[in-house]
Amino acid sequence: MGLIEEVIKGNPRAAARIMRLIEDDVPEAREALKKLYPYTGKAYIIGITGPPGAGKSSLVDRLVEEFRKQGKKVGVVAVDPTSPFSGGAILGDRIRMQRHSTDPEVFIKSLATRGHLGGLSKATDDIIQVMDAMGKDVIIVETVGVGQDEVDIVKTADTTMVVTVPGLGDDIQAIKAGILEIADLFVVNKGDKPEADKTVRELEMMLDMSAPREDGWKPPILKVSATKGEGIKDTMEALEKHRKFLETSGRFESYRKDRVAHAFENLLRDKLFHMVMSKLKENGTYDKLLEDMFSKRKDPYSVIEKLRCQCVLDTENN
Amino acid sequence: MEGTERKVKILVTKPGLDGHDRGAKVVARALRDAGFEVIYTGLHQSLDQIVHAAMEEDVDAIGISILSGAHMYVFPTLINMLKEQGLDDVVVFGGGIIPTDDIPELEKAGVKKVFLPGTPLEEIIDWVKENVKPRAVSF
After folding, report:
1. A264 and A230, same structural domain?
2. Which domain holds residue B86?
């Protein structure tokens, strides 16, 4: 089991192996995660989301540069879409992150969504755990290019950044629900374009009109040009401000608790589903049930109500 | 959770100075359409960058597109660097402007396959399907 010790020491090659096993969901991955679990929960996780082509990868590249100047170890998880037709994918986020591609303290991992909706891939949270256990101080998670409703990132990240660009639509787009509600920070990228100020104003107006957030945080709006490197310092300051806010308000800890619950619920859902399914499939019960429902002799609602499952937590070994 | 199929991961990359990536992109796209996960690095990669990317992404194969004439240096050097990193089970293949006379020597150096200009995409896909498998799980 030398691989686990190597990951904890920060060995990228060992970490890469385990991440791959997690992606492919082989049984060994689960064993590795069990052993890494005690070493997780320390990293600061930044989520970056926004529409395709908004410049998320270019912005990540700049942020990595700044964090490296501060001497922080950085992990990057970049998610790109899987083709719904072939199951294949082209993962191209590394193209914009060349400057860090040989830095031993920067680990960049590309992930394909593999059919998972919500802007991330199913493996994302577990991959973050590995980077966390490796000793990365900051982990930046870049979602796929999203539309209006892919908001999984809030459950994963401490600070969520929504990147938008000028010219995507009128101010009605800015008052719709969805990704605009999840931003702790707004970045208007391609800020050197003439319409950028208008986009900033529209976002300001949207924020002024909406009710104050429950946590009392007022999301700042930053005008940035990621390719030219403008507005990056301000963005870093805004990130630091939000991180301090999370710490002083106790949210840094409570988000971690929420994440534990979220991860546990997901695992539980998977586990129960497989337990019940394998039981149902014994002796051909499942096929018979399907046949009965198809021919309308039974309905699925009653079938579910009649399920009785014995659920035992073996506390002696826990 | 259980019993998902492992996916083959391929790094498609262009080392060095030549700036023509049309071929690499066409191949990347064809591999995607065949169901592979392709990590595309873009142009002007140093060998260090390629090895680093292959390590971090834990790929099963590296496909190199090379039109610059530096293939007799690039392929053997890369294969040695991979070995030094313990990545000797990564399949290296390539294509581009490569004289047929050079192919035997490249194969001797460890290049698994060289595709010449005009190779039908199906031939590349079939070869990858046949010769690249997800790397073994080792603990």
Report:
1. no
2. 9-131
CB pair distance less than 8 Å for B7 and A24: yes
Q: What are the tens digits of pLDDT across the range A124-162?
A: 999 999 999 999 999 999 998 877 667 888 889 999 999
CA dist A185 and A213 (Å) reads 13
Q: Which of B6, B35, B49 sits opposite A87 (nearest CB)?
A: B35
Q: Smallest Cα–Cα separation from A106: which of A94, A121, A122?
A: A94
Does any domain span residue A297? yes
Residue where one domain finishes, among candidates A223, A249, A275: A249
Query: Which of B31, B45, B52, B87 should we substitute to test contact with A (largest number of A Cβ atoms within 10 Å)?
Result: B52
Residue A186 identity: F
CB spacing of B139 vs A274 below 8 angstroms: no
Containing structural domain, residue A274 = 260-317
Mutate to test the interface with A, among B4, B7, B33, B44 (most CBs of A within 10 A): B7
The interface predicted TM-score (ipTM) is 0.89
Amino acid at A165: V
Count of the separate structural domains present in chain A: 2
pLDDT tens digit sequence for A215-265 = 899 999 999 999 999 999 999 999 999 999 999 999 999 999 999 998 899
Instruction: Tell me how far the alpha carbon of residue B38 is from its chain's centroid.
Output: 10
